[in-house]
């Protein structure tokens, strides 16, 4: 298990964090294993760790054994009375906020012994390589070899500005009119500017919007719009409080695209740990309580 964890994460430090031991303890255990087997299993440099050819062969052989062990451990879960364990997720900041509102209260109520460890990260990462149990992303961005559980609801985007700004600059009536307005730009995790997406009568339109202010956080974009710094393109979830209180007004509502669906996804070739299965059950039940229909889907569908 120690060797497999280090090889999967390609890092003694991250493996030590996951296993709850010191990196020096892992290093000593791996040297002992290599000495006992008489082969080098890992290539080590100051910057990286990777399995040797012998290490890859050992991992391939251990895979079915680990699956059998996971199945055996899961088979005794009902006798413990309460599901226990840690489920590690990687999700964009917006999805984390939705998780906190919609999923985690139910999770805490039904499975109080499960720890949900979430890393908020907007860039797309390899959840398997990084050691996560699952991730959350838009449904159309999920890798084809993953299994996806659709999240309840979705993300809808809005263009917003403060009443004071709109009194000064007038209300844009078409997306192209935004070129005459001060706009709050959105920088993607890649560093590239986000192209604002619109739709009218089924025809999509994407505009490269430039502005005197560029941010990479939706909460700050909402704050900037409230301060009268221009028009912002943000999720309705992020802007809902300011819209309800009248601090922001929506513009170009007839041009906004439909809802973007989010999904919790995980590798389909592994046994599902009990803690992750518990979380999936809550996601499914919350979705079913809001809208009839299946909550489970393959990413290939």
Could you describe the 3D structure shown?
The chain is α/β, with parallel strands linked by helices and 301 residues long. 39% of the residues lie in helices and 25% in strands.
Helix content: 25-40%
Percentage of residues in strands: 25-35%
Distance between the termini: 34 Å
Number of helices: 11
Sequence of secondary-structure elements: HHHEEHHEHHEEEEHEEEEHEHEEHE
Determine the structural class based on helices, strands and strand pairing.
alpha/beta
**Overall mean pLDDT:** 84
Radius of gyration: 24 Å
Main sheet record: 6 strands, mixed
Number of strand elements: 15
Which regions are unreliable across 5 or more consecutive residues at pLDDT < 50?
292-301
Q: What is the strand arrangement across the widest sheet?
A: 4-3-5-14-6-15
Broad shape: elongated
